[in-house]
Amino acid sequence: MSRIGKLPIDVPGAVKVTLQPGRVMVEGPKGKLERTLPADITVKQSNGQLVFERPSDGYKHRALHGLVRSLVANMVTGVNTGFTKHLELVGVGYRVAKQGDDVVLSLGYSHPIKYKPPPGVSIEVQDPTKFSVNGISIEDVGQVAANIRGMRPPEPYKGKGVMYRGEKIRRKAGKAGKGAKAAG
Q1: 1-4, long-range: CB within 8 Å, 24+ apart, which pairs?
Q2: Is the Cβ–Cβ distance between 54 and 17 less than 8 Å?
Q3: Cβ neighbours of residue 97 under 8 Å, at least 6 residues apart?
Q4: Model confidence over 71-116: pLDDT tens digits?
Q5: Domain residues for 138?
Q6: Is residue 91 part of a domain?
Q7: Residue 139 maps to which CATH number?
């Protein structure tokens, strides 16, 4: 048995799950998500829990078993509590500001970068160097955070850039001084 796939998902009282063959819809206080699932994995709802079953112990079914369970668990968590990624800017003059729904980032380029998050994802700015990406879909939140981080990834020499809060950047030593060349 898949260690992840065999675990049941507890459905909170505020969350409503609708099951159809090959499809699951989850509705909660934060919003509504739906997803098409592989037809091989069956989902059953009983006693406020979702249980996932696979038809065989074949490689494909074992792989899908844990995947489908994780996807649905993330949907249930998302509509109930939501997901958040915290980011921060490190560097002189690097700052973030909110302009309506858009976010304006100053990342050391000659121009500010305006970023509009997709529907279902919001960005909250705590102070000029710290902000958070929020939403009900873990995939969308992670992708938006990765896109913003990709605009100026942290570099290993000075540690400047957009990084996840708490992320450790492996630092490198810079060039050796003039005295090092003469010793060769």
Answers
A1: 2/54, 2/62, 2/65, 2/66, 2/69, 3/66, 4/65, 4/66, 4/69, 4/70
A2: no
A3: 103, 104, 125, 128
A4: 999 999 999 999 999 999 999 999 999 999 899 999 999 999 999 9
A5: 83-164
A6: yes
A7: 3.90.930.12
